[in-house]
Automatic annotation (TrEMBL):
Signal peptide: none
Protein name according to UniProt: Arsenate reductase
Pfam families: ArsC (PF03960)
Stated family: Belongs to the ArsC family.
Length: 117
């Protein structure tokens, strides 16, 4: 069964670029979702779906902590508020994220992206 490999990718991020290169070296040609571009931005519902596919109950599983404080996220911020903030400020989404079917993984380390192959 052919399942499309979707990579949530930010070309300005070296880890994301290395993750894409690793997939390509392993024969995977992912569909690239440049979620930082307004035209390809992730909705709150898509972000919730990604958390579910990761087996996580919280968006904190892929929250980029070093940018979270910039948009007012702290330990007391609700999951719902974090999802809304992620949709509005994609730079606070940790990357890269690989998605295949009903599974998703955060590529930190990038080798984790191969778990879906």
């Amino acid at each position: 069964m052919d399942m499309t490999y979707i990579l949530l990718h930010h070309s300005g991020c070296s880890t994301s670029r290395k993750g894409l290169a690793l997939l390509e070296e392993n024969g995977v040609e992912p569909e690239i979702r440049k979620y930082m571009n307004a035209s390809e931005a992730l909705s709150v519902d898509e972000l919730k779906d990604i958390a579910k596919k990761m087996g996580a109950s919280s968006p904190r599983a892929f929250l980029r902590d070093k940018n979270a404080a910039d948009v007012g996220i702290d330990d007391a911020t609700s999951d719902e508020a974090i999802f809304v903030a992620m949709a509005a400020n994609p730079k606070i989404i940790q990357r890269p994220i690989g998605i295949v079917g009903k599974k998703a993984v955060l590529g930190r380390p990038i080798e984790d992206l191969l778990k879906l192959v």
